[in-house]
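To: structure desk
From: M.T.
Subject: fold request, one chain
Message: Could you run this one when you get a chance? Sequence is below, nothing fancy, just the single chain.
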Amino acid sequence: MPYYFCYKIALYLIRHIYKMKNSLIAHINKFVKLDEQETELVCESVNLVTVKKKQFILKADEVCRANYFVSKGCMRLYFINGNGQEQIMQFGIENWWITDYWSWGTGQPSNYYLQAIEDAELISINKKTYEELLLEVPKVERYFRIILQKVHAATMRRIEYSRDQSDEERYRQFVALFPGFVQRIPQYMLASYLGFTPQFLSKIRGKRESGAKSQESRKK
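Reply: Done. Structure tokens follow.
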């Protein structure tokens, strides 16, 4: 391969790596402000992972070795319930972290599968490096504490909604909060996450679309 093309490929890769890592730094800086040295330490502590659609980076009975920041794409974390059905616990899209925190933190085998719904670009950090980084850059510890607080609050709200809202109300609220995201994932996955069947979701969507058409007809 001619030198010029090798140079162009190398330059593209460098720029792409910089862009991916910069997405993480930009997210961290929304919550804490890193100086130049701290930014360099963070960038040196993480790795880049490219995942193809439907590829797994974790399967049940494996130990989860990293926490993943989604730079591009969409991921899902799920387990297989007693009926042999997939139960999705979490989605991960751009600027979200996703992992099995229990397995990652304890080193014990996971019950979960972590799979790409779309081609994805991830930034990963392993447990040992993570612990070292928290000591070297206390601001990063504050950043992750904020992120985990948000995760916990979201989990509590999800439990509350599952008990106090009907299935249709939960669906409508999810669509209102994440309208673009709903278009990116298969219907059966959304149903699994919200805790009802794809058939029921189709019924809800049908009512929603029918209602929208009726409103348009009245305006005309």
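Reply (cont.): The first helix runs from residue 3 to 28. Let me know if you need anything else for the meeting.
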